[in-house]
Amino acid sequence: MIRVPTTAILLAFLAALIAPAGAQPAPSIRIVAPRAGAAVSGSQMVVEVRVRNFYLTPMSIGKASRPGEGHWYVYVDGKFAGLSADEVVSLPNDTYPALAAGKHRIRVALRNNDHTAVMGAVNEITVTIPKKSAMHYAPAAGQPGIKIMVPHDQTEVSPYLVVWVKVQGFKASAAGMGTATKDGEGHWKLSVDGRAAGLSSSMVADVSLARGTHMLEAALLNNDGTPVSGASNDQVTVNVR
Q: Residue 148: phi, psi to the nearest 5?
């Protein structure tokens, strides 16, 4: 009988547990708000996520796939309800315009730049919309325009900020991002101090700001990222504590 030293067996076992050199942790996404099982009231529900080992790249939506970067989809009861390339999206929206009272499954999934799935990077919770709290969304009528509702101009804000907007005369199209221009639909861009900070097809976008004074601007864009001709944009100045 050939006896294998105990030390050799231990080393072989440890080697099997260690990931191969250069291996990267798998991308993941997790819903942090609302909480699983929560009752959600109000005019809109903000789904907030945390993404790990993956870069959210709003300016690359619809472009060629690159490992480790992209955006995420949100689904309600199995139906596509929008996408985001930051860590928030609001429901209902133009893609999914109504949330009836009752229980709903909220599912999020990472996607590559070209919208293909990132295998295994999904998360799901169930929430309840109470009776008399059914939510509906429709853009206001009028000429195309966007207004920043939160934060207000000349206010103090925290370094992590969720920006809320109101859109009129224009349909936000999550599925249309990165495609050819179609009159009356597109998305909006959030800029900080003149530099693009995010794209959104819902009524929210988030941003992390350094201390000091910053100018935030919201502008409507066509599906292909070009400015919407004649649309009114908006800007506010904030001070980060």
A: -80, 120
The dihedral over CA atoms of 75, 80, 83, 88, expressed in degrees to the nearest 10, equals -30
- Given a contact cutoff of 8 angstroms between Cβ atoms, the answer to whether 173 and 187 are in contact is yes
Cα of 38 vs its chain's centroid, Å: 20
pLDDT for residue 23: 64
What is the tens place of the pLDDT at every residue in 170-220?
Answer: 999 998 998 999 999 999 999 999 999 999 999 999 999 999 999 999 999
Tokens at residue 60, please?
């690359």
pLDDT in tens, 104-124: 999 999 999 999 999 999 999
Set out the domains of the chain in order of their start, with CATH numbers.
Answer: 28-136 (2.60.40.10), 145-240 (2.60.40.10)
How many beta carbons lie within 10 A of that of residue 197, not counting itself?
Answer: 20
Q: Supply the pLDDT for residue 241.
A: 85
Task: Read off the amino acid at residue 72.
Answer: W
Contacts of 237 (CB under 8 A, 6+ apart): 153, 154, 213, 214, 215, 216
Nearest to 133, CA basis, from 49, 204, 34: 34
Name the nearest CA neighbour of 214 among 234, 196, 189, 240. Answer: 240
SS3 146: strand
Cα separation, 181 vs 120, in Å, equals 33
